[in-house]
UniProtKB/TrEMBL annotation:
<keyword id="KW-0326">Glycosidase</keyword>
<dbReference type="GO" id="GO:0046872">
    <property type="term" value="F:metal ion binding"/>
</dbReference>
<comment type="function">
    <text>Adenine glycosylase active on G-A mispairs. MutY also corrects error-prone DNA synthesis past GO lesions which are due to the oxidatively damaged form of guanine: 7,8-dihydro-8-oxoguanine (8-oxo-dGTP).</text>
</comment>
<dbReference type="GO" id="GO:0051539">
    <property type="term" value="F:4 iron, 4 sulfur cluster binding"/>
</dbReference>
<dbReference type="InterPro" id="IPR044298">
    <property type="entry name" value="MIG/MutY"/>
</dbReference>
<keyword id="KW-0234">DNA repair</keyword>
<protein>
    <recommendedName>
        <fullName>Adenine DNA glycosylase</fullName>
        <ecNumber>3.2.2.31</ecNumber>
    </recommendedName>
</protein>
<dbReference type="InterPro" id="IPR011257">
    <property type="entry name" value="DNA_glycosylase"/>
</dbReference>
<dbReference type="InterPro" id="IPR000445">
    <property type="entry name" value="HhH_motif"/>
</dbReference>
<keyword id="KW-0408">Iron</keyword>
<dbReference type="GO" id="GO:0032357">
    <property type="term" value="F:oxidized purine DNA binding"/>
</dbReference>
<dbReference type="InterPro" id="IPR003265">
    <property type="entry name" value="HhH-GPD_domain"/>
</dbReference>
<keyword id="KW-0479">Metal-binding</keyword>
<dbReference type="GO" id="GO:0006284">
    <property type="term" value="P:base-excision repair"/>
</dbReference>
<dbReference type="Pfam" id="PF14815">
    <property type="entry name" value="NUDIX_4"/>
</dbReference>
<dbReference type="InterPro" id="IPR015797">
    <property type="entry name" value="NUDIX_hydrolase-like_dom_sf"/>
</dbReference>
<comment type="similarity">
    <text>Belongs to the Nth/MutY family.</text>
</comment>
Length: 346
């Protein structure tokens, strides 16, 4: 097919030299694909290199403590990916003797592996003709064929998968899949693509009908909720502080944070100090409270915006689960906590 031939020719000239393109080893392909979910290559590449250096095989990753994996993942966000990565490595080692499933359907059964990742591994490692469909592919196909179906609708997901499957080069699915993903990332970019040098501009519906900015279509998600987070950063005279592990399900599950007080609105210093006095950690304990950041740090997640303040709580002593401040860098924390730790410089 002309589309496939043109695409692969473009890829042969323009593809970036990336380490996971030098191998067909399933472990490295799987690792790169999990890291690159919701993450751009320039951000994900250093993490991939760090993981490969520390865990060169799936056996090494399976032997690691989850806290170590989360610490290495720190800053990438969507931490469920790291937890699933670790859980899957353990399963592959214990149940499959370190061998990855060699087909799309079996790969789909792995924790944290969906249609896209299963298709990528199956095609690149095992030459199975199953098409990848990610944000880049949606964009390319939507613009080239002028498709208005929302990409995040059930109808759109089925329609674009079927179209990609129809277009895939059955003889060389690995090259085709990598080419279409790269084309979307480098050439058919979300904003201001250079359509004048695009090899598809003569046939591209979006370009010829001046609809580049309109496509692809996506249903708007619900408005993100606004939350007010207040972290209590304890500092004692003997240089200790407190971190708590987040239990239960959630975006920061098994990560560490300073003791948290969530409020339904922004509070004044006086209002918050009155609230802090009743905190279980400060009952009958003299303390000095200092607001570190007058303006809240806004941390935007897909479904909520966290308006965050850090309150320094000076106390004479901390006992029990207190840790030395020089150990604070050993704990995996959300990026917003990590940024504060670097700036505060205990």
């Amino acid at each position: 097919m002309i589309f496939s031939k043109t695409l692969k020719h473009w890829y042969s000239i323009n593809k970036r030299a990336l380490p996971w393109r030098q191998t067909q080893e399933p472990y490295f392909i799987w690792l790169s694909e999990i890291i690159l979910q919701q993450t751009q290559v320039k951000q994900g590449l250093p993490y991939y290199e760090a993981f490969v250096a520390k865990y060169p095989t799936v056996f090494d990753l399976a032997k690691a403590d989850e806290s170590e994996v989360l610490k290495l993942w720190q800053g990438l966000g969507y931490y469920s990916r790291a937890r699933n990565l670790h859980a899957t490595s353990k399963y592959i080692v214990s149940a499959l003797n370190g061998k990855f499933p060699n087909n799309y359907k079996a790969l789909l059964k792995l924790k944290g592996v969906g249609d896209y990742t299963a298709s990528a591994i199956a095609s690149i490692c095992f030459n199975e003709a199953t098409a990848v469909v990610d944000g880049n592919v949606y964009r390319v196909l939507s613009r080239y064929f002028g498709i208005d179906t929302p990409t995040n609708s059930s109808k759109g997901i089925k329609e674009f998968k079927a179209l990609a499957q129809e277009l895939i080069d059955k003889k060389d699915p690995a090259e085709f899949n990598q080419a279409i993903m790269e084309f979307g990332a480098v050439q058919c970019t979300p904003k201001n693509p250079n359509c004048l040098v695009c090899p598809f501009n003569k046939a591209c519906m979006a370009f010829n009908k001046n609809r580049i900015a309109e496509l692809p279509v996506k249903i708007k998600s619900a408005k993100a909720k606004k939350k007010h987070f207040n972290f209590l950063v304890f500092v004692s005279n003997n240089q200790k502080t407190l971190l708590e592990k987040r239990e239960g399900k959630g975006i920061w599950q098994n990560l560490y944070q300073f003791p948290l007080i969530e409020t339904d609105k922004n509070l004044s210093y006086t209002q918050f100090k009155t609230l802090v006095k009743n905190h279980a950690l400060l009952e009958n304990v003299p303390f000095e409270l200092v607001l570190y950041n007058k303006d809240a740090v806004v941390h935007k997640l897909s479904h909520q915006h966290l308006h965050t303040k850090f309150w320094i709580v000076h106390v004479e002593h901390l006992n029990g689960k207190a840790i030395s401040v020089d150990k604070i860098h050993d704990f995996p924390v959300p990026i917003i906590i990590g940024n504060f730790i670097e700036k505060f410089n205990f």
